[in-house]
Amino acid sequence: MKVTVCFGRTGIVVPCKDGQLRVRDLTQQALQRYRKAQEKVRASHHVSLSERVSCTNLP
């Protein structure tokens, strides 16, 4: 079984196995997954911005 937890417009899918996961544990796992996803988004924005800067500095 899977549950989708929404943070604004972002949905995070959390597997809860056979339904024995407590709501508290489910929310903690969803929050961890959301934070990881946000870190990846920030990292990809950082890379794309640095690539643009280095490309504009070429002769």
Automatic annotation (TrEMBL):
Domain of life: Eukaryota
GO molecular function, one term: phosphatidylinositol binding
InterPro entries in the cross-refs: PAR3 (IPR052213), Par3/HAL_N (IPR021922)
Annotated coiled-coil segments of the chain: none
Sequence ranges assigned to domain Par3/HAL N-terminal in this UniProt record: 1-42
Alphabetical keyword list: Cell cycle, Cell division, Repeat
GO BP annotations listed: cell adhesion; cell division; establishment of cell polarity; establishment of centrosome localization; establishment or maintenance of epithelial cell apical/basal polarity; intracellular protein localization; microtubule cytoskeleton organization
Record-given protein name: Par3/HAL N-terminal domain-containing protein
